[in-house]
Write a structure and sequence with these properties.
Blueprint lengths: L1 H18 L3 E2 H4 E3 L5 E10 L11 H13 L10 H6 L9 E10 L8 E8 L10 E8 L5 E8 L5 E5 L2 E5 L4 E10 L12 E6 L4 H15 L4 E3 L4 E5 L4 H12 L2 E2 L7 E5 L4 E4 L4 E2 L2 E4 L3 E12 L10 E12 L4 E4 L5 H10 L4 H14 L2 E2 L1 E4 L1
Parallel strand pairs: 15-23
Antiparallel strand pairs: 1-14, 2-11, 3-4, 3-6, 4-5, 5-10, 6-7, 7-10, 8-9, 11-13, 12-13, 15-16, 17-22, 18-21, 19-20
Length: 376
């Protein structure tokens, strides 16, 4: 545990050292007009090896029948289309499954480009492995079709069952189709029409936004960039589209020294991972962490009477209860103690990550921790 803690804090120290160096604006912010858009669609996966929805899931049955009718086919040649559609259970759909298809449409994506799609089962399918997605329309929030998806699924999860036992590795009911959709419609953006280009930083920080504005104005002149708030910067851009692209490219490569992030302590209570930023300080405090252990040992014995005692054999149970308390020294934190001193104090007594979490929570409750404590 001690080596794990040292590795986490060493890695964090390297990140903090890098944060103090200059970064390109393109690594700190992105153009507001170039944003991704979420797409969604409903489709059917076929070609499964008996792991599909079957006839119990009504949406799969309806979807396959409607698809067959559009292709000019009928489930039974002696029936009309209306009778075939209304007839339940005529098709055996163990090899088909209803799925939900999602994708992210990148900003400025053009028709003909390919994007990745994610496919997830909706019904009773136990696995999508080996299946292929039938042509599916992907729509945006406005209801318009922006992409068409189709192709063989790449499923990493595996499930197997035999003789009443089953084993599942990963999630076999979800898969991915790399480059599985073709963009059919472009999302209109204000990049070419607006008189300004807006940059949004990755996280809200007044100091970083101020540094970006100063760096841009130092390169192109005062008044070119203006801060909108703690996250956005408005930049006057040329009207000519070619000049605008060149202008934004130059801005993206300007180096800026961002401010250090606020002091934070992030704790993952499930895994025991603790990440402490370099700016964390602790006020004067004394902390003691220890646990009380209670052990109960039970011994089963049999009482056997003598041969002439005319008694009965009885089973007895003896129990021994012990209580012990681990002796842990107190942590004495001086005012303004920094990250390294906290880690050294915890490591000296051989405390585990769970003990460090308890200490940090106690410091936060007492008001001695000069940082934001985030528990995930």
């Amino acid at each position: 545990m001690k080596s794990i803690l040292k590795f986490v804090f060493l890695l964090l120290g390297l990140v903090c050292i890098h944060a103090a160096q200059a970064d390109r604006i393109k690594d700190l912010a992105s153009v507001a007009a170039i944003r991704s858009n979420q797409l969604i669609g409903y489709g059917v996966v076929v070609g499964l090896n008996g792991t599909g929805d079957g006839n119990d899931f009504i949406f799969t049955t309806q979807s396959v029948r409607q698809m067959m009718l559009r292709l000019g086919l009928q489930a039974d040649g002696s029936m009309t289309d209306a009778e075939t559609t209304a007839l339940p259970g005529k098709l055996d759909l163990k090899n088909a499954a209803a799925v939900l298809v999602t994708a992210d449409l990148p900003g400025l994506a053009k028709p003909g480009q390919r994007i990745d799609v994610n496919v997830s089962a909706l019904g009773k399918a136990s696995s999508l492995r080996g299946g292929s997605l039938v042509m599916t329309s992907l729509r945006g929030v406005d209801g318009q079709v922006y992409a068409i998806a189709q192709g063989a699924l790449n499923v990493t999860g595996v499930s197997a069952s035999a003789a009443g036992s089953s084993v599942t590795i990963g999630v076999p009911t979800a898969g991915r189709i790399p480059n599985g959709a073709t963009v059919e419609r472009q999302v209109q953006t204000p990049f070419a029409r607006s008189d300004k280009v807006v940059l949004n930083t990755r996280s809200a920080d007044f100091s970083t936004v101020s540094a970006i504005v100063n760096a841009i104005n130092a390169r192109f002149g005062d008044g070119i960039a203006n801060a909108i708030d703690a996250m956005s910067v408005a930049i006057k851009a040329p009207e000519d589209l070619t000049q605008r692209v060149t202008f934004v490219a130059e801005i993206e490569n300007i180096e800026v020294r961002p401010s250090e992030p606020p002091a934070r302590v992030i704790v993952n209570a499930r895994t025991g991972t603790v990440v402490i930023s370099r700016a964390v300080k602790v006020a004067a405090a004394a902390v003691s962490h220890g646990t009380i252990s209670v052990t109960v040992a039970a011994t089963n014995e049999v009482s056997q009477p003598n041969a002439l005692a005319q008694g009965q054999t009885q089973a007895t149970q003896n129990a021994e209860v012990g209580v012990s308390e681990n002796k842990k020294p107190m942590f004495l934190f001086q005012p303004g103690i920094d990250l390294r001193q906290i880690v050294d104090a915890v490591n000296q007594v051989g405390a585990s990550p769970s003990a460090l979490i308890a200490i940090l929570e106690a410091l936060k409750t007492s008001g001695s921790l000069r940082a934001e404590l985030i528990i995930i």
